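In this section we walk through a basic example: taking a raw amino acid sequence and producing a predicted 3D structure, encoded as discrete structure tokens. The instruction is simple. Fold the sequence below.
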Amino acid sequence: MNKRRIAVEELRSQHWFKAPGKPGVAKYYRMNQGGFTTEDHDRKPIIGIISTWSDFATCHTLFPERTEQVKRGIWQAGGCPMVMPAMSVSESFVKPSTLMYRNFLAMEVEEMIRSQPVDGVVLMGGCDKTTPGLVMGAASMNIPAIYLPAGAMLRGNWHGQVLGTGSSGAEALAEYRAGKIDERAYREMVAATVRSPGTCNVMGTASTMTALVDVLGLTLPGASSIPAVDNAHARMAEHCGRRIVDMVWENLRVGDIVTPASLENAVVADMALSGSTNSLIHLVAMARRLGHSLTLDDFAKASETIPVICNLMPSGKYLMEDFFYAGGLLALLRKLQSHLHLACTTANGRSLGENIEKAETWNDDVIRPLDDPVYPAGGLVVLSGSLAPRGAVLKRSAAEPRLLQHTGPAVVFRNYADMLARIDDPDLAVTPDSVLVMQDCGPVGAPGMPEWGMLPIPKKLLHQGVRDMVRISDARMSGTHFGTCVLHVSPESRVGGPLALVRDGDPIRLDTEGRRIDLVIDANEMERRQRAWQKPPPHYSRGFGWMYSEQVLQADEGCDFEFLARPGATPEPEVR
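The resulting token sequence is shown next.
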């Protein structure tokens, strides 16, 4: 992309610093108060470093160090760095749901940029919802932005076993609940899965979303594959600082990079990676912030043609560290190049095709050839039917194959608390053929659509050796997890979707081949139940929770706020 380099007078920050009279002068002496000289910031791009670090964000432990490296790069390139902390949205600690606060982070980022004199931003995230939240906010402002991914942690090890964060922990929990290992072994195994700073080391939501933002072109090429503790990560951070200054002078904005074509590339890569089911929600939300249409149909189409060639847990056997050594994302994209729009512009100013031209694969078992895939078609499948008129999603590559075509009687839990209270009851009327159904766990219902979709197998079935069942909910599932879990059922039960009408014993048919999920009851009975349904009372009467519940869209629409996903523009603030 050949864009005219902007003049100093066109810098957004100049509207603050060159404002006539007292408003402009005040900005100078307040910068002096912070220890900056006039030479530090005068007639230079002001670069915001938006960091989601906190002591609770343990995946982002290295961000204070990375921030200093980004600042060094900005100074080297002739810019002025200004650190702007943002909400961490730590997946491990934030309740009731990080998806709920993804929207808070997106609002915060948008308004932080709008209200302060920054010309470009470095977005520092990694843990699941920080990536889409940061990108959504920056997209709405549509200024030059580059994303710095936190990087994955090192592979886990325990008693000679290689462990994946989340995935191996879920397996260990099932073995512990089945009485196969004791509590000490369970605790040791889970602790061994998190042995360094960085995000989960499997192709969970964190690695999926950083990889997809890399595909979109918002990172330095291949940045998402570098492990958090590798010295290449520190060098990448400094390079981000240098590059964002050039992006400001080039006026290379988020909207120039994220286009319908680059979004199609991300969907294709998502299927080849066997990415997290959460990616559908986040990509749709990110696209809508720039006025682009991305729907479940786009994912469904790609799922039919793109095989899984990334052999990573939970759908395969390797981890992110292995992916990096095998060539990383750029090597995978080169194998996919016949399915990609190679002319798309990326953050380094070059095209996607140029960035992957010399990429090589060093381990063909980690990054498979297209004609020798891990799974012959896309890992994610979009379903519809009488139980999910607006769609649902299943990660078939992480499911037990025998269950992909299944009909069984429903065992219904009214909500998460009901499930916890009854799932291990010896008298629970459940068999391996049953279909576990959990209601009231969607965007409005839970609230915030938590990652509850991998319902636990009832303990009495675990003792029989059962490790997978068909499970259905309007919740999400951690990208690190596995199982035949139908998720994101839309519309959700809390707003009167068909999921709310399911009763114990109702036959439910999962037809993955036909892309359907159906409640097999008489239409008249369905209509009678719909008429009798009553809307539950709201969770909140005030505050952010109330606003969230009033404005959140359904899963197929990205779970963004309606007033932020809609078209329109907000004027720049006047400096007075």
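Looking at the output, two observations stand out. The mean pLDDT is 95. The longest strand covers residues 405-413. In the next section we compare this with other chains.
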